[in-house]
Amino acid sequence: EAKNKGRDGIIIFNDELCKIIEKKLEIERYLHFAVDNSEVKLQYQPQVNAQGKVIGCEVLARWHNEHIGDVSPDVFIPIAENTGYIIELGEYILERALQALVKWDRSGIRLAQISVNISMRQFLDNSFIDMVEKLFDRYNIYSFKTQVIFEITETSTSDNLKKIVDVINKLKNFGIKFSMDDFGTGYSSLSYLREMPIDELKIDKSFVSKLDDEQQALLVKSIIEISRNMNLSIVAEGVEEKYQKDFLEELDCDLYQGYLFYKPLNQEDFEALF
Ligand code: C2E
Ligand code: MG
Ligand code: MG
Ligand code: MG
């Protein structure tokens, strides 16, 4: 990156940078029609308890476009956030997830919980609460035993904290629970965690992958202990190896999600587990 910067920090547009920007614009252009063209699909990654039993799942968006192929959500979600398309995309994803929930309930697949990622831009949109209420009414989600969880991530500033807490509390009236996703990767602190009326904390996979490091292991241990004191349920993400699961189980982690157990599955494969 440094080599792209001139003496005064001015970015010099070289070919490489141009290509990156072009690529991004291209993605942006196609993304705009992704929902209408039925290019977005949902996958479901099982979450298991210490005994390996599937207790819940996380809904993960997948996008395939015929011109540009598969695009990772790590790429298209931030773009959708920047363009505002996340509002339409997020509603589509939530509706599809709720439809799956209805189908599962009818066919006897009773999950304890289903988690849906909600980006902050979508969460703070003025129409978000009404949209959620509309969908919950439409599918009568209140009648199901499955707990709907919204996964939100920490924000870089505490500017919006009051508004975030307010929206969480309003949505809790619909019976929705909240999970703090990717905790520890952003800028937030433990005091931020305390102020958020959340129910669950997800240990980010960047921590889980470094559990062989003594310092990191101690850090995860403290995060879990503090979360426990706050009565939060704890989900470890990115569990790939047996020693990681064993360590986390020792700390009484509630749920495990990762390739050691299951990769994200399409709906048919997910249903086949039951
Ligand atoms: P996330 O919410 O933290 O989701 C967990 C990510 O870790 C997923 O990546 C999942 O496939 C991956 N993962 C799970 N287990 C393992 C493992 O054992 N090893 C490794 N290496 N990875 C594992 P994915 O599906 O690529 O999603 C990336 C991110 O994109 C998500 O991170 C989330 O922030 C965002 N995202 C995905 N779907 C949605 C969505 O529907 N809405 C929003 N707003 N964001 C989404
Ligand atoms: Mg998540
Ligand atoms: Mg996560
Ligand atoms: Mg993550």
UniProtKB/TrEMBL annotation:
Superkingdom of the source species: Bacteria
Residues covered by the EAL domain: 24-274
Name of the featured protein: EAL domain-containing protein
The species this protein was found in: Sulfurimonas marina
Region of the whole protein represented: 338 to 611 of 611
